[in-house]
Amino acid sequence: MATVAKSSHSNVASIAMAAAAGAAAAATLGFTAQAESTMDVLKGISGQLSSIEEAVVFAPALAKIGSIKKSHPGNLAVKDFDFDYFASLSSADKKALLAIVNSGVQNADSGMGCYAMNPTDYDKFEPFFGAVISDYHGVPRSQHHVTDWKLDGVAGLPADGKLDVTKLGLPPVSMRVRVGRNLADFPLPGAMNKDDRVAMEAKMQIAFVELKKKYGGRYHSLTPGNPDFITDDEYKALVKAHVMFKDMAADTYLSDAGIASDWPFGRGCYQSEDKGFIIWVGEEDHLRIMCMEPKGSLINGVFERLKTALDTVESIEGLKFAHSEKYGYVTSCPTNLGTGMRASVLMKIPKLCKGGSDANAKKVCKPLGLGVRGMGGEHTAIGADGTCDISPTARFCISEAEIVTALYTGIKNLKAAEDSA
Protein backbone atom coordinates (compact mmCIF):
# COMPACT_ATOMS: atom_id res chain seq x y z
CA MET A 1 0.00 0.00 0.00
CA ALA A 2 2.82 2.25 0.86
CA THR A 3 4.29 1.69 -2.56
CA VAL A 4 0.94 2.38 -4.20
CA ALA A 5 0.44 5.53 -2.16
CA LYS A 6 3.92 6.75 -3.04
CA SER A 7 3.32 6.06 -6.70
CA SER A 8 -0.01 7.87 -6.61
CA HIS A 9 1.56 10.85 -4.92
CA SER A 10 4.29 10.95 -7.54
CA ASN A 11 1.74 10.81 -10.35
CA VAL A 12 -0.25 13.65 -8.85
CA ALA A 13 2.88 15.71 -8.53
CA SER A 14 3.82 14.98 -12.13
CA ILE A 15 0.35 15.89 -13.33
CA ALA A 16 0.45 19.11 -11.33
CA MET A 17 3.84 20.02 -12.78
CA ALA A 18 2.64 19.23 -16.27
CA ALA A 19 -0.42 21.34 -15.76
CA ALA A 20 1.68 24.22 -14.47
CA ALA A 21 4.01 23.91 -17.44
CA GLY A 22 1.05 23.83 -19.79
CA ALA A 23 -0.42 26.92 -18.20
CA ALA A 24 2.90 28.68 -18.48
CA ALA A 25 3.21 27.68 -22.11
CA ALA A 26 -0.32 28.84 -22.80
CA ALA A 27 0.39 32.14 -21.06
CA THR A 28 3.53 32.56 -23.13
CA LEU A 29 1.70 31.76 -26.33
CA GLY A 30 -1.02 34.18 -25.34
CA PHE A 31 1.53 36.90 -24.62
CA THR A 32 3.28 36.26 -27.93
CA ALA A 33 0.00 36.39 -29.78
CA GLN A 34 -0.87 39.58 -27.97
CA ALA A 35 2.56 41.05 -28.78
CA GLU A 36 2.21 40.06 -32.42
CA SER A 37 -1.23 41.59 -32.49
CA THR A 38 0.13 44.83 -30.98
CA MET A 39 2.94 44.93 -33.52
CA ASP A 40 0.46 44.46 -36.33
CA VAL A 41 -1.58 47.37 -34.99
CA LEU A 42 1.51 49.55 -34.70
CA LYS A 43 2.56 48.64 -38.21
CA GLY A 44 -0.90 49.53 -39.41
CA ILE A 45 -0.75 52.91 -37.65
CA SER A 46 2.73 53.54 -39.05
CA GLY A 47 1.49 52.71 -42.52
CA GLN A 48 -1.45 55.07 -42.13
CA LEU A 49 0.85 57.86 -40.88
CA SER A 50 3.16 57.26 -43.83
CA SER A 51 0.21 57.54 -46.19
CA ILE A 52 -0.87 60.78 -44.53
CA GLU A 53 2.69 62.10 -44.72
CA GLU A 54 2.90 61.17 -48.39
CA ALA A 55 -0.36 62.98 -49.10
CA VAL A 56 0.10 66.06 -46.87
CA VAL A 57 3.87 66.64 -46.85
CA PHE A 58 5.39 65.01 -49.90
CA ALA A 59 2.66 65.13 -52.56
CA PRO A 60 2.41 68.96 -52.80
CA ALA A 61 6.20 69.29 -53.07
CA LEU A 62 6.37 66.55 -55.69
CA ALA A 63 3.57 68.17 -57.69
CA LYS A 64 5.43 71.49 -57.62
CA ILE A 65 8.64 69.78 -58.72
CA GLY A 66 6.77 68.20 -61.62
CA SER A 67 5.45 71.59 -62.66
CA ILE A 68 8.86 73.29 -62.47
CA LYS A 69 10.40 70.52 -64.56
CA LYS A 70 8.23 71.78 -67.41
CA SER A 71 8.34 75.53 -66.76
CA HIS A 72 12.03 75.89 -65.80
CA PRO A 73 14.11 73.10 -67.36
CA GLY A 74 17.30 74.99 -66.45
CA ASN A 75 16.69 74.45 -62.74
CA LEU A 76 19.15 71.57 -62.27
CA ALA A 77 17.92 70.39 -58.86
CA VAL A 78 14.43 69.93 -60.27
CA LYS A 79 15.57 68.71 -63.68
CA ASP A 80 17.61 65.89 -62.10
CA PHE A 81 15.07 65.04 -59.40
CA ASP A 82 14.12 61.40 -60.03
CA PHE A 83 10.69 60.44 -58.68
CA ASP A 84 11.50 56.72 -58.69
CA TYR A 85 14.66 57.32 -56.67
CA PHE A 86 12.69 59.49 -54.24
CA ALA A 87 10.08 56.73 -53.82
CA SER A 88 12.83 54.26 -52.89
CA LEU A 89 13.96 56.33 -49.90
CA SER A 90 12.90 56.05 -46.27
CA SER A 91 10.56 58.70 -44.89
CA ALA A 92 13.47 60.42 -43.11
CA ASP A 93 15.60 60.47 -46.27
CA LYS A 94 12.69 61.77 -48.33
CA LYS A 95 12.42 64.73 -45.95
CA ALA A 96 16.17 65.24 -46.15
CA LEU A 97 16.16 65.26 -49.96
CA LEU A 98 13.25 67.71 -50.09
CA ALA A 99 15.18 70.01 -47.73
CA ILE A 100 18.17 69.78 -50.07
CA VAL A 101 16.10 70.90 -53.09
CA ASN A 102 13.80 73.33 -51.24
CA SER A 103 15.61 76.44 -52.50
CA GLY A 104 15.04 75.37 -56.10
CA VAL A 105 11.44 74.38 -55.43
CA GLN A 106 10.67 77.76 -53.83
CA ASN A 107 12.67 79.69 -56.43
CA ALA A 108 11.83 78.18 -59.80
CA ASP A 109 14.30 80.47 -61.61
CA SER A 110 17.27 78.89 -59.77
CA GLY A 111 20.16 77.71 -61.88
CA MET A 112 21.40 75.11 -59.40
CA GLY A 113 18.52 74.94 -56.91
CA CYS A 114 20.00 72.66 -54.24
CA TYR A 115 22.26 72.85 -51.20
CA ALA A 116 23.75 69.98 -49.22
CA MET A 117 22.63 69.95 -45.59
CA ASN A 118 25.28 67.65 -44.11
CA PRO A 119 28.91 66.82 -45.00
CA THR A 120 27.90 63.27 -45.98
CA ASP A 121 25.02 64.26 -48.27
CA TYR A 122 26.98 64.14 -51.52
CA ASP A 123 27.91 60.51 -50.93
CA LYS A 124 24.64 59.50 -49.25
CA PHE A 125 22.42 60.95 -51.99
CA GLU A 126 24.83 60.21 -54.84
CA PRO A 127 22.07 59.12 -57.30
CA PHE A 128 20.72 62.69 -57.08
CA PHE A 129 23.87 64.74 -56.56
CA GLY A 130 25.87 62.73 -59.10
CA ALA A 131 23.44 63.75 -61.84
CA VAL A 132 23.37 67.41 -60.76
CA ILE A 133 27.15 67.66 -60.48
CA SER A 134 27.74 66.00 -63.84
CA ASP A 135 25.14 68.30 -65.42
CA TYR A 136 26.59 71.50 -63.97
CA HIS A 137 30.32 70.79 -64.18
CA GLY A 138 30.14 68.87 -67.46
CA VAL A 139 32.18 65.90 -66.25
CA PRO A 140 31.47 62.14 -66.31
CA ARG A 141 29.85 60.81 -63.15
CA SER A 142 32.72 58.37 -62.69
CA GLN A 143 35.37 61.11 -62.50
CA HIS A 144 37.04 61.91 -59.16
CA HIS A 145 38.37 65.29 -58.05
CA VAL A 146 42.10 65.77 -57.38
CA THR A 147 43.56 68.76 -55.52
CA ASP A 148 46.67 70.42 -57.04
CA TRP A 149 48.03 73.94 -56.38
CA LYS A 150 51.15 73.67 -58.58
CA LEU A 151 51.21 76.11 -61.50
CA ASP A 152 54.08 74.41 -63.32
CA GLY A 153 52.97 72.88 -66.59
CA VAL A 154 49.40 74.23 -66.54
CA ALA A 155 48.05 74.91 -70.03
CA GLY A 156 47.75 78.64 -70.75
CA LEU A 157 50.36 79.70 -68.22
CA PRO A 158 52.66 82.41 -69.69
CA ALA A 159 56.27 81.38 -70.33
CA ASP A 160 57.52 83.40 -67.37
CA GLY A 161 54.85 81.85 -65.10
CA LYS A 162 53.44 85.28 -64.20
CA LEU A 163 49.71 85.94 -64.45
CA ASP A 164 50.17 89.69 -64.88
CA VAL A 165 46.96 91.49 -65.94
CA THR A 166 48.84 94.63 -67.02
CA LYS A 167 50.33 92.55 -69.86
CA LEU A 168 46.77 92.19 -71.13
CA GLY A 169 46.35 95.94 -71.33
CA LEU A 170 44.41 96.24 -68.08
CA PRO A 171 45.20 98.63 -65.25
CA PRO A 172 45.80 97.16 -61.77
CA VAL A 173 42.48 95.66 -60.64
CA SER A 174 40.83 94.44 -57.48
CA MET A 175 41.50 90.70 -57.30
CA ARG A 176 40.45 88.02 -54.87
CA VAL A 177 40.99 84.29 -54.49
CA ARG A 178 38.99 82.38 -51.91
CA VAL A 179 38.06 78.87 -50.88
CA GLY A 180 35.02 77.55 -49.06
CA ARG A 181 35.55 75.07 -46.26
CA ASN A 182 33.26 73.32 -43.77
CA LEU A 183 34.11 71.66 -40.48
CA ALA A 184 33.48 67.92 -40.56
CA ASP A 185 31.92 67.77 -37.10
CA PHE A 186 28.97 70.13 -37.71
CA PRO A 187 25.94 70.10 -40.03
CA LEU A 188 26.32 72.35 -43.07
CA PRO A 189 24.82 75.87 -42.68
CA GLY A 190 21.44 74.94 -44.16
CA ALA A 191 20.79 72.39 -41.41
CA MET A 192 22.40 74.19 -38.47
CA ASN A 193 20.39 75.49 -35.53
CA LYS A 194 21.38 78.50 -33.45
CA ASP A 195 23.35 76.43 -30.95
CA ASP A 196 25.29 74.77 -33.78
CA ARG A 197 26.19 78.15 -35.25
CA VAL A 198 27.36 79.59 -31.95
CA ALA A 199 29.38 76.45 -31.13
CA MET A 200 31.06 76.45 -34.55
CA GLU A 201 32.00 80.12 -34.19
CA ALA A 202 33.42 79.48 -30.70
CA LYS A 203 35.56 76.63 -32.07
CA MET A 204 36.94 78.89 -34.79
CA GLN A 205 37.70 81.67 -32.31
CA ILE A 206 40.09 79.28 -30.56
CA ALA A 207 41.76 78.71 -33.94
CA PHE A 208 41.99 82.45 -34.61
CA VAL A 209 44.27 82.79 -31.59
CA GLU A 210 46.85 80.82 -33.58
CA LEU A 211 46.29 82.87 -36.74
CA LYS A 212 46.79 86.13 -34.85
CA LYS A 213 50.26 84.95 -33.85
CA LYS A 214 51.23 84.85 -37.54
CA TYR A 215 49.02 87.45 -39.19
CA GLY A 216 47.92 89.74 -36.38
CA GLY A 217 44.52 91.34 -36.79
CA ARG A 218 41.30 90.59 -34.95
CA TYR A 219 37.99 88.75 -35.08
CA HIS A 220 34.70 90.65 -35.43
CA SER A 221 31.64 88.80 -34.14
CA LEU A 222 27.99 89.58 -34.83
CA THR A 223 26.81 87.21 -32.08
CA PRO A 224 25.25 89.11 -29.14
CA GLY A 225 27.23 88.51 -25.96
CA ASN A 226 30.35 87.31 -27.78
CA PRO A 227 33.61 88.74 -26.34
CA ASP A 228 34.52 90.01 -29.85
CA PHE A 229 31.06 91.49 -30.54
CA ILE A 230 31.04 94.62 -32.71
CA THR A 231 28.48 97.42 -32.91
CA ASP A 232 26.04 97.85 -35.77
CA ASP A 233 27.99 100.88 -37.01
CA GLU A 234 31.22 98.86 -37.03
CA TYR A 235 29.46 96.11 -38.93
CA LYS A 236 28.09 98.50 -41.56
CA ALA A 237 31.56 99.99 -42.04
CA LEU A 238 33.03 96.52 -42.65
CA VAL A 239 30.26 95.71 -45.16
CA LYS A 240 30.88 98.97 -46.99
CA ALA A 241 34.58 98.14 -47.16
CA HIS A 242 33.69 94.67 -48.61
CA VAL A 243 35.32 93.02 -45.61
CA MET A 244 32.15 91.55 -44.06
CA PHE A 245 29.18 89.90 -45.76
CA LYS A 246 25.63 91.27 -45.68
CA ASP A 247 22.65 89.89 -43.81
CA MET A 248 21.65 86.95 -46.02
CA ALA A 249 17.94 87.19 -45.19
CA ALA A 250 17.34 89.30 -48.30
CA ASP A 251 18.66 86.47 -50.47
CA THR A 252 15.65 84.20 -50.97
CA TYR A 253 17.81 81.42 -52.42
CA LEU A 254 19.85 81.18 -49.21
CA SER A 255 16.86 81.83 -46.95
CA ASP A 256 14.85 78.99 -48.47
CA ALA A 257 17.88 76.73 -48.09
CA GLY A 258 17.98 77.47 -44.35
CA ILE A 259 21.42 79.05 -44.68
CA ALA A 260 20.28 82.53 -43.65
CA SER A 261 18.49 81.32 -40.49
CA ASP A 262 19.29 82.54 -36.94
CA TRP A 263 20.94 85.74 -38.13
CA PRO A 264 23.25 87.15 -36.74
CA PHE A 265 24.20 84.27 -34.42
CA GLY A 266 27.40 82.43 -35.31
CA ARG A 267 28.43 85.02 -37.88
CA GLY A 268 31.65 86.97 -37.96
CA CYS A 269 34.85 87.78 -39.76
CA TYR A 270 38.56 87.49 -39.04
CA GLN A 271 40.81 90.06 -40.72
CA SER A 272 44.60 90.09 -40.70
CA GLU A 273 46.60 93.12 -39.61
CA ASP A 274 47.42 94.11 -43.21
CA LYS A 275 43.77 93.51 -44.22
CA GLY A 276 44.78 91.21 -47.07
CA PHE A 277 43.65 87.95 -45.47
CA ILE A 278 40.04 87.42 -44.39
CA ILE A 279 37.97 84.52 -43.07
CA TRP A 280 34.19 84.79 -43.09
CA VAL A 281 32.44 82.66 -40.49
CA GLY A 282 28.86 81.43 -40.93
CA GLU A 283 28.02 82.50 -44.46
CA GLU A 284 27.07 80.00 -47.23
CA ASP A 285 29.80 77.71 -45.90
CA HIS A 286 31.19 77.52 -42.38
CA LEU A 287 34.29 79.33 -43.62
CA ARG A 288 35.19 81.46 -46.61
CA ILE A 289 38.97 81.88 -46.53
CA MET A 290 40.22 84.56 -48.88
CA CYS A 291 43.13 86.74 -49.88
CA MET A 292 42.70 89.94 -51.86
CA GLU A 293 44.56 92.83 -53.41
CA PRO A 294 42.62 96.10 -53.96
CA LYS A 295 44.86 97.23 -56.81
CA GLY A 296 46.89 94.29 -57.97
CA SER A 297 48.54 93.27 -61.20
CA LEU A 298 49.83 89.79 -60.37
CA ILE A 299 47.24 87.06 -59.76
CA ASN A 300 50.03 84.77 -58.55
CA GLY A 301 50.51 86.94 -55.49
CA VAL A 302 47.05 86.46 -53.97
CA PHE A 303 46.96 82.81 -55.08
CA GLU A 304 50.22 81.92 -53.35
CA ARG A 305 49.36 83.87 -50.23
CA LEU A 306 46.03 82.08 -49.95
CA LYS A 307 47.80 78.71 -50.15
CA THR A 308 50.13 79.73 -47.31
CA ALA A 309 47.23 81.02 -45.20
CA LEU A 310 45.15 77.92 -45.89
CA ASP A 311 48.02 75.63 -44.91
CA THR A 312 48.21 77.52 -41.62
CA VAL A 313 44.47 77.11 -40.97
CA GLU A 314 44.47 73.41 -41.85
CA SER A 315 47.41 72.74 -39.53
CA ILE A 316 45.54 74.04 -36.45
CA GLU A 317 44.83 71.18 -34.09
CA GLY A 318 41.17 70.18 -33.81
CA LEU A 319 40.13 71.50 -37.24
CA LYS A 320 39.10 68.86 -39.75
CA PHE A 321 37.51 69.97 -43.00
CA ALA A 322 34.68 68.00 -44.61
CA HIS A 323 36.03 66.07 -47.58
CA SER A 324 34.70 63.43 -49.96
CA GLU A 325 37.01 60.89 -51.57
CA LYS A 326 35.14 61.36 -54.84
CA TYR A 327 34.07 65.00 -54.72
CA GLY A 328 36.94 66.72 -52.93
CA TYR A 329 36.25 69.51 -50.44
CA VAL A 330 32.59 69.59 -49.45
CA THR A 331 30.68 72.85 -49.85
CA SER A 332 27.01 73.75 -49.33
CA CYS A 333 26.44 74.48 -53.01
CA PRO A 334 27.46 71.91 -55.65
CA THR A 335 28.78 74.75 -57.83
CA ASN A 336 31.74 75.16 -55.44
CA LEU A 337 32.37 71.47 -54.84
CA GLY A 338 35.88 70.08 -55.34
CA THR A 339 38.28 72.96 -54.94
CA GLY A 340 35.78 75.21 -53.18
CA MET A 341 37.75 77.91 -54.97
CA ARG A 342 36.66 81.09 -56.66
CA ALA A 343 39.26 83.38 -58.26
CA SER A 344 37.92 86.73 -59.46
CA VAL A 345 38.73 90.24 -60.58
CA LEU A 346 36.63 93.39 -60.78
CA MET A 347 36.76 94.39 -64.44
CA LYS A 348 35.17 97.27 -66.33
CA ILE A 349 33.30 96.13 -69.44
CA PRO A 350 30.98 99.12 -70.17
CA LYS A 351 30.30 98.19 -73.81
CA LEU A 352 29.12 94.71 -72.91
CA CYS A 353 27.02 96.19 -70.08
CA LYS A 354 25.45 98.95 -72.13
CA GLY A 355 22.20 100.16 -70.60
CA GLY A 356 23.21 99.04 -67.12
CA SER A 357 22.42 95.35 -67.74
CA ASP A 358 24.85 92.45 -67.48
CA ALA A 359 22.69 90.21 -69.71
CA ASN A 360 24.91 90.62 -72.79
CA ALA A 361 28.07 90.29 -70.70
CA LYS A 362 26.81 86.96 -69.35
CA LYS A 363 26.02 85.81 -72.88
CA VAL A 364 29.56 86.61 -74.01
CA CYS A 365 31.20 85.19 -70.88
CA LYS A 366 29.46 81.81 -70.81
CA PRO A 367 31.34 80.25 -73.77
CA LEU A 368 34.54 81.68 -72.29
CA GLY A 369 33.96 79.64 -69.13
CA LEU A 370 33.40 82.78 -67.07
CA GLY A 371 30.69 83.84 -64.65
CA VAL A 372 29.48 87.40 -64.11
CA ARG A 373 28.36 88.81 -60.76
CA GLY A 374 27.64 92.21 -59.32
CA MET A 375 30.21 94.18 -57.36
CA GLY A 376 28.82 92.87 -54.07
CA GLY A 377 28.75 89.24 -55.17
CA GLU A 378 25.99 86.94 -56.38
CA HIS A 379 22.53 88.48 -56.87
CA THR A 380 23.88 92.06 -56.54
CA ALA A 381 24.04 94.91 -59.07
CA ILE A 382 26.94 95.64 -61.39
CA GLY A 383 28.72 99.00 -61.15
CA ALA A 384 27.30 102.07 -62.89
CA ASP A 385 30.51 102.19 -64.94
CA GLY A 386 30.10 98.60 -66.11
CA THR A 387 32.31 97.07 -63.43
CA CYS A 388 31.58 93.36 -62.98
CA ASP A 389 32.97 90.58 -60.85
CA ILE A 390 34.45 88.07 -63.30
CA SER A 391 35.53 84.53 -62.42
CA PRO A 392 35.89 81.06 -64.02
CA THR A 393 32.82 78.91 -63.39
CA ALA A 394 34.69 75.59 -63.13
CA ARG A 395 35.41 74.33 -59.59
CA PHE A 396 35.19 70.55 -59.84
CA CYS A 397 37.62 68.13 -61.53
CA ILE A 398 39.90 71.07 -62.24
CA SER A 399 42.94 71.93 -60.15
CA GLU A 400 43.34 75.11 -58.11
CA ALA A 401 46.25 76.08 -60.38
CA GLU A 402 44.11 75.59 -63.48
CA ILE A 403 41.41 77.88 -62.06
CA VAL A 404 43.67 80.92 -61.65
CA THR A 405 45.21 80.28 -65.07
CA ALA A 406 41.70 80.04 -66.55
CA LEU A 407 40.90 83.41 -64.95
CA TYR A 408 43.91 84.97 -66.69
CA THR A 409 43.03 83.45 -70.05
CA GLY A 410 39.38 84.32 -69.60
CA ILE A 411 39.87 88.01 -68.90
CA LYS A 412 42.26 88.17 -71.86
CA ASN A 413 39.48 86.87 -74.14
CA LEU A 414 36.87 89.04 -72.43
CA LYS A 415 38.93 92.18 -72.99
CA ALA A 416 39.15 91.31 -76.69
CA ALA A 417 35.34 90.91 -76.79
CA GLU A 418 34.87 94.25 -74.99
CA ASP A 419 37.27 96.07 -77.32
CA SER A 420 35.45 94.78 -80.41
CA ALA A 421 31.92 95.35 -79.07
Give a short summary of the structure.
This protein has 421 residues and is α+β, with helices and mostly antiparallel strands. It is 45% helix and 13% strand. The model is unreliable at 1-19 (pLDDT under 50).
Explain the overall architecture.
The chain is of the alpha+beta class. It has a domain at 1-121. 45% of the residues lie in helices and 13% in strands. The protein has an eight-stranded antiparallel sheet. The N and C termini lie far apart (128 Å). Residues 1-19 have low confidence and may be disordered.
Determine the number of helices (DSSP H or I, runs of at least 4 residues).
12
Mean of residue pLDDT values: 89
Fraction in helix: 40-55%
Instruction: Give, in order, the helices and strands.
Output: HHHHHHEHEHHEEEHEEEHEEH
- The secondary-structure class comes to alpha+beta
Strand order of the largest sheet: 2-3-4-5-1-8-10-9
Q: Report the radius of gyration as a whole number of Å.
A: 30 Å
| Main beta sheet | 8 strands, antiparallel
Name the overall outline: globular
* Gap between N and C termini: 128 Å
Work out the strand percent. 5-15%
Query: Which regions have little confidence, pLDDT < 50, spanning 5+ residues?
Result: 1-19
- The overall strand count is 10
